[in-house]
Amino acid sequence: MPALFATPNSELTITINENAGFYAVIDGRQYDSRGGSVLISNLNHGNHRLEVVKSSLTLGGTVYDYLYRGSVNILPNKRIFATIDRFGAFVILRTENMHENNGHGNGYGHNGGSGYGYGNNDYYGGNNGYYGTGSYGSGGGNGYYTSGSFNTGGYGYYGMSPESFSMLLASMRRESFDDTRVHMALSAVSRGVTSAQLRDLMLMLTFDSNRLKLAKGAYSFVVDKNNIFFINDAFTFNSNADEFYRYIGTW
Length: 251
What we know:
Layout: E1 10-16, E2 21-26, E3 29-32, E4 38-43, E5 46-58, E6 61-74, E7 78-84, E8 90-97, H1 162-173, H2 178-188, H3 195-202, H4 208-218, H5 238-247
């Protein structure tokens, strides 16, 4: 296949549902966490074998716990943000297109394509943005709801932009105390945040009581309140989830 039509590679960022050291092994190659996340670049599209392992120091030495073992399907030309939730599931929080390719026809092009790129009416972004969880619609078209992302078409930003959100997460990781992280998050979401982004922010906190505090404080700024159930597994205790839903009047 000519290089012009080569399938673009993707990038995967993985976090876990706690503040702990961990590493990921994909297709037999190990990647260590840095700043609370593992970054894996230049991934070919298709299925990959993934293991995510937490390391803990004990009096008896280092203990390794497998948080996830399974396969993941990587789409081409995607920047994927995922987490391992408290139930051991691999959850994609959002995706973004990495590059715009300007080819035509049925490949990975920008105009008129029916493949994975930015083509009209494609399923992974582009003008109509049908991809259900976290696609990045930039075509100026209809921009139907895409969880954990934003639309740069005719309707402007939807939630925090990926760049701003990534900077916020990085800033929160540098703070040692939950209280400071909560204040940072509440200040940042005042212009709008998606349910999936709020879930990410809650998972940056150590104590469930502070996750509840953040959820209550940020709820009025959530732009897709019909998807607020996305934050359910960010709570460690069901009682706090119940209190949140009573607070917003759902129960």
